[in-house]
Write a structure and sequence with these properties.
By secondary structure, the chain is mainly beta. It is 8% helix and 45% strand.
């Protein structure tokens, strides 16, 4: 295949066909679809325009007379003139950054240091050119002033592409190389962040609170109100250990509010006292309901701890109180004395609640235009998942990595269409009749033995792999490369008999 139509939006005023475009390599992979592209053109192109301004532009490639089979954006440009070769690309561009550092803390003791992170700093001019590209840098121990200065220096250094001088390519006096990336890669520009869906304390320590040992503290209860628009509670974490050898059970309930005190139980977990540890290092207890409980942001709720047996000063239970009161809302932390609920003062119970949502809804949230999908035009879910995942994201992981992990959780696929829509679908069984055959050299062939042309992206399709004269298996194409006029399958998965 020698003739191609190459389109780069930033150079619509130039006819690229006049510079003899040669597609050197194309790759596709799942998830994502179009992956990488490399196109070679006559070096005279560099005299016609400032190629740096093309970076980030929409790019597509099509066989002559056919529809586009690869699409994405222009990631890098290389130019060689004589024995001088240079390059610009977007690999190191960062236009929104923060710095993590370690500094002495009041609670760390002599020489103790804790983790901190600066606020974000950003360069709006770079973001308008190349989209928002985030990075959190780590600098080790530093003062606050040093961390802020380092953040600002990194932003100034990385906001725009830098000229790179490279060793010349042999046998090439004048050329231009365009390097493309598929739109799926743009999910790697931002972190997966969703601040709602978590209520509680990030601390591990707190003041000890014994309960179930005396009439004054028979039960404890913590008032709270969900953030945002409310969410489905899917996890409850409580710091709880035993003292002595209690033989009764502990009931942990989420309750409605009844006149600023605990009301009817909406959800209850029961734990045997003997199952709890005495070791404070093992104090966190994780509870997951059989079905999620919807919590509204306009309502007050209560987390209540009670024992099922009699009060016992030697065999009771111990929880902790976070002095910051991160979990609480008025009237706060309270204890039941047998006849009434009374305040236990400031602070809140050391506990955490996490919201959750359907996995495919969460994927659409993270990859949508309000998340990391700034270059996409929408997310379409063809088959919703039945699995549920945490709603809260702390912004510490790249969105692309999180999306890959979520897809793998439920055997899902995703690819970006030529119109820049992300489509999420479930992997399905192979058709009863396979029209593609994978030969021993990794080539794709039609039933008549002729090579399969690049009429459309090849990944995600099924092909027949002949293992022996009497044995063939269906395989799903996961990674495919086109190079030097040949299409080769570099990765596939074997059908296991379940969809």
């Amino acid at each position: 295949m020698s003739a191609w139509t190459v389109r780069v939006d930033a150079c619509s005023h130039l006819a690229l066909e006049a510079f003899h475009p040669q597609v050197e390599e194309l790759t596709w992979q799942m998830p994502g679809g179009a992956d990488t592209a490399q196109v070679r053109l006559d070096g005279a192109l560099a005299d016609q325009d400032d190629l740096r301004r093309w970076l980030g532009a929409e790019m597509s490639l099509a066989p002559a007379g056919g529809a586009p089979c690869w699409w994405g954006y222009l990631h890098g440009v290389e130019v060689q003139r004589g024995r001088v070769r240079w390059r610009w690309d977007l690999a190191q561009v960062v236009n929104r950054c923060a710095v993590r550092y370690r500094a002495p803390t009041p609670w760390g003791g002599e020489g103790g240091a804790g983790p901190f992170q600066t606020p974000w700093a950003e360069d709006g001019r770079s973001q308008r050119r190349f989209g928002v590209r985030e990075r959190i840098f780590s600098v080790g121990e530093a003062s606050e002033a040093e961390a802020f200065a380092r953040r600002d220096a990194l932003l100034a250094e990385r906001a725009f592409p830098h000229l790179q001088i490279l060793p010349p390519l042999s046998g090439a006096d004048g050329l231009v190389l365009l390097e493309g990336r598929g739109w799926w890669h743009t999910l790697g520009w931002r972190y997966a962040s969703h601040p709602q869906g978590w209520l509680g304390s990030a601390h591990r320590e707190g003041a000890s609170l014994t309960w179930g040992h005396s009439s004054a503290v028979q039960r404890v209860a913590q008032a709270f109100t969900p953030d945002g628009d409310g969410w489905d509670c899917g996890e409850v974490w409580v710091w709880l250990i035993r003292t002595g050898n209690p033989v009764d059970d502990v009931q942990i309930s989420l309750c409605a509010d009844a006149g600023a005190q605990p009301g009817a139980a909406l959800m209850t977990f029961t734990l045997s006292g003997s199952s709890l540890s005495r070791d404070p290092a093992l104090g966190w207890v994780r509870l997951r309901p059989s079905s999620a409980l919807r919590l509204n942001s306009t309502s007050r709720y209560w987390l209540v701890l009670r024992r099922t047996g009699a009060l016992d000063a030697q065999n009771a239970y111990l929880t902790r109180v976070d002095a910051d009161g991160a979990f609480g809302t008025p009237p706060g932390l309270m204890a039941f004395n047998g006849s009434a609920w009374q305040s236990l003062g400031s602070g809140s119970l050391l506990a955490n609640l996490f919201g959750e949502e359907v996995l495919t809804n969460h994927l659409a949230r993270l990859a949508g235009q309000d998340g990391a999908g700034q270059c996409l035009r929408g997310v379409f879910v063809r088959q919703p998942s039945t699995k549920r995942v945490r709603l809260y994201r702390d912004g510490r992981h790249i969105a692309l990595d999180v999306c890959r992990d979520l897809l793998a959780l439920d055997d899902l696929d995703a690819f970006v269409t030529a119109e820049r829509h992300l489509v999420v679908e479930r992997r399905t069984a192979p058709p009863s009749v396979l029209t593609l055959r994978l030969d021993a050299n990794g080539g794709l062939r039609l039933p008549d033995g002729s090579p399969w042309g690049l009429s459309m992206p090849p990944v995600g399709r099924w092909a027949c792999l002949q293992l022996s004269a009497g044995l063939s298996v269906p395989v799903r194409l996961e990674r495919v490369k086109w190079r030097d006029g040949n299409l080769r399958v570099e990765g596939f998965s074997v059908w296991t008999g379940k969809s």
